[in-house]
Amino acid sequence: MRRRPFARAVALTAAAALVLAGCVAGGDDRPTVTRGSLTGELTGAGATFPDPLFQEWIASYTDGVETGVDIDYQAVGSGGGIEQFLADAVDFGSSERYLQQGELSVAREVRGCEAVQFPVLFGAVVLALHDDALDGLVLDPDVLAGIYDRRITRYDDPAIAALNPDMELPDTEILPVHRSDGSGTTYVFTRFLTTEVPFWAQGYAEGTDIDWHDDTLGGEGNEGVTRAVQENAGGIGYVNQSYALANDLATARVVNEDGTPVEPTLEATTAASEEATIPDDFQFNIDDIGGEGYPITGANWIFAYECGYDDETAALVRDFWTWALTDVEADRLAAELGYAPMGRELKRRVIEEIGRINSRG
Known about the structure:
alpha/beta, 3-stranded mixed sheet, phosphate ion binding
């Protein structure tokens, strides 16, 4: 839901406390590093979903941790991140979808060694709304699928009214906004609809790039979707929570697997992430979320290689992502932007995976 300044400050203070507690608990896993010893440049590309946080992480790391380092991350969308990683055009890629078997085979051919992929954060995909009066609007998977399939075209539709008996709904045409670029945010959103709504699974399915209904509007990146929602009466669009927070947008509550309408808070995102079963290869989805969990929750993965880096670049890739997972300041920045922390055990597993980067030289 849309936060007023005081409410947001309280929420962020609580979120920061939650994250810092988790970080301190995991502090024993933090490696010993001689700070100020690294130099070099890193290039990365991919998801817009984590871009607000990645830019804060990069600034904090290069300004106050390793000042001889330059890191350039381009938010080109998850599809672009996968493409550039597999083209060997960047030092690391980023996506809200993990690399699947065919892509892992391509990666193996590119470098002659295995790709390394690991999650670094969790975040909510929220439904942002143009009309502030609709803040807290309750939507369920069937209604969301109906909106994007244009079966439901007005906010006072009976299906929406049934979910919101105490809200005065306007007779306004709904304008659904989607990502026009290859997007992990699209993957998370359409994965949710595919697992919950049969007609969506048959007609659209899940993916980073969907053949959307003609009567919907596209926007490039989370920024483009946010802008389209802001500028168009009746607009509704799916974006990363940080974009809704930064622009003080009204957001919807979404009904989860237990039939509970859940506000997309940091705590609700954390609750959802804790229900995920995460295998050794880190290839997972966050499905069928109940309890207090927000149901449209995703992760962001980083891609690197077991070989092919020079020693300076390899050390820098490993150190930056280890710092992002273990540093108190890094976790504080994540909390402020609405990203959920990983638990101590998952952090330990991910740091172990980071150690594979360039392990084959």
